[in-house]
Amino acid sequence: MSTAPTLLWFRQDLRLEDNPALSAAAARGGVVVAVYIWDPEGEGSWAPGAASRWWLHHSLTALDAALRRAGSRLLVRSGASERVLGELLAATGADAVYWNRRYEPAAIARDAAIKSGLKARGVDARSFNASLLFEPTGVKNRQGGPFQVFTPYWRHCLSLEVERPAAAARPDWMPVSRLPVADALESLGLLPTLDWAAAFGRTWVPGEDGARKALEAFVAARVDTYATDRDFPSLGASSRLSAALHFGEIGPRQIWERLRARNEETGVFPASVGESRFLAEVGWREFAYHLLFHFPRTPEAPLRGEYAAFPWADDPEGKLLRAWRRGRTGYPIVDAGMRELWTTGWMHNRVRMIVASFLVKHLRLPWQEGARWFWDTLVDADLASNTLGWQWSAGCGADAAPYFRIFNPVLQGEKFDAEGRYVKTWIPELARLPASCIHRPWEADPGTLASAGVELGRTYPRPIVDHVRARQAALAALQALKERPS
DNA sequence: TGAAATGTTGGGGCG
DNA sequence: ACGCCCCAACATTTC
Hints:
Elements: E1 6-10, H1 20-28, E2 32-38, H2 50-69, E3 74-78, H3 81-92, E4 96-100, H4 105-120, E5 124-128, H5 150-158, H6 200-203, H7 208-221, H8 226-229, H9 242-246, H10 252-262, H11 273-294, H12 319-326, H13 332-344, H14 349-362, H15 367-377, H16 383-394, H17 409-416, H18 421-426, H19 446-451, H20 467-483
Parallel strand pairs: 1-2, 1-4, 2-3, 4-5
Helix pairs in contact: 11-16, 13-14, 14-16, 15-16
The structure holds a DNA duplex (15 and 15 nucleotides).
């Protein structure tokens, strides 16, 4: 008796290498049917945003192309995951569904229901870990609870065994002639109707091949200087792997293995502060999933509950929020970051911290507004990392920057973009200003501004808030929160 | 993975 | 020669 087909349900693991669900499906022996289900309703209030959908479209296209080369296709459908899986089981004669786990609250609830429903019908339903070095359930502090501070968390993780990438799998993919008819990828409507994402295609190569090349390029040219260069946004020192990691075009075990193999001869690993630092950034991603799993309400609510009553500023017509979103705050380093985000779907990490601090402290607008904007505009939008990042910036999360730690956007610009190269890249109207005043054009003398073609209030805005007063107001708001009668 | 305010120290100008 | 003061440089504290 021959083995029935297996449905391999792709979600945020859009790769064929290091794919434990795929390896297990291949080991079953029957043919494997690759399936992707577009099910935004199943994501709670966090359906992929516009930039993520752009990436997803192209990543699915790449996965489909890889499967075509193997004589099959990616079977694409949209609708409720459980219903679609049921239909595909019937249409293909499959008796098993394998997938790699997700860890977002809505996905956990949905997947658990699907798994028990399938099992009740006698379907072999199994899930695997493809996307984390350390699953949240497997890491506990001495008291048996979740870690809430990164350094002890990561130290503990580094004492644990890291699994090797999954074995390569060459399954018998179900041939195109036997596949049910798939929906066209275009029918999912993932691409924007207006082509605001034009620059995305010049910036990114979604898909497993692109991810592999990005890792190789980073390891070859960047990782050794990563520890020092990573803070300077004009140096291009980032790995730029965040979106590939989010969509699972590459897995953290592959990254780990790549660096381990790099030091095979010496046996010393990690071998440099650059490698350690880069792995620690992978560790922050792990920590973000750890926190999201154990504190599932944090995408909406501060982990430190007292911050729910923070006295945010009034912005009745949304003018402040709009200026921030569009990169028109009058602070060049902030505006450059917001424009890089809008143009490319990505922002350098140092600059993410600066713009987040500015929104939450200088404008005193709720961090949730920033998280939502990032969610819609980042190609790497990831519920765990986004939530951690914003709660960190707002001072209301685990191991967060204290609220009183307020970035001075001028000093941050002068420290990390001394020549103004980053600012000039994203704010061309300031490109002719000398470095000495690029981060504070409002202090430049009229002649300098004129010869640079800058007219404050017209070609580039004046600061929408005064730094000193905004800082004082932020500290006063924190004080008000502390003194609030409880 | 801050910044600003405040405190301390020590060199040098100067009466 | 000496004490006083200024202030830059650095350290510490506070937000």
